[in-house]
Amino acid sequence: MKYMGKRAKSVAAVAIAMSSLMACGAFTGCQFVSTDTNKDFSQVVAEIDITKSADFAAGGSFAEYGQVIKKSEVLKRDLAASFLSNYSNLQNQGYGDYASMFKTICDSLVAQQIRIQYAMAYLLQNGDAEGNGYTVEGYKAAVADKNDPLADIKYFLTEVEREQGLYVTRVRFNNTLDSNEKTALNADSSSSSSGSARTLPTGVNTTNSDYYDGNYRVYIGFNSASNCGTYKTVEGSSVTSRKKAFDSFLSSLRKNALLTTGENPIIKDESGRVQFNENLSYFQMELRSQYESLLLNKLTKLFEKKAEEQITQAEIAENFENDYKNQSEDYKADASSFESSLDSISDSSFLFTAPEAGYGYVVNILLPFSASQSAAYSSAPQDQGDPKGNKFMQRASILKNIAATDQRESWITGDTDYSFDASAQGSSIKDYYTGGKTNRTQLFFEDSLITDYTADYFLTANDTREKNYTDEFTAMSKYYGRYTFNGSVQYSKEDKTYRIVKNNVSIDDFIGEMEGYLNQAFKTVFGRDNVATGSLEFDDYYTRGYSSYYKQNDNQTVDYNTVDYSKFVYYQGKVNFAEKFDANKMFVAGSEENLAFSVINELSFAYNTDTAGLNPYLGYSVVTGKTNYMTEFEYAAQKVCRQGAGSYIVSPTDYGWHIIYCTFSFLEENDEIKPFSFDYSQRYTKGTMSNLYFEAMKAKYVSDYSSIMTNSVDIAYNNKDCVTVYEKRYENFSNMDA
Question: Which of 23, 297, 329, 622 suits 222 as a labelling partner, its CA being 20 to 30 A distant?
Answer without folding.
Answer: 23
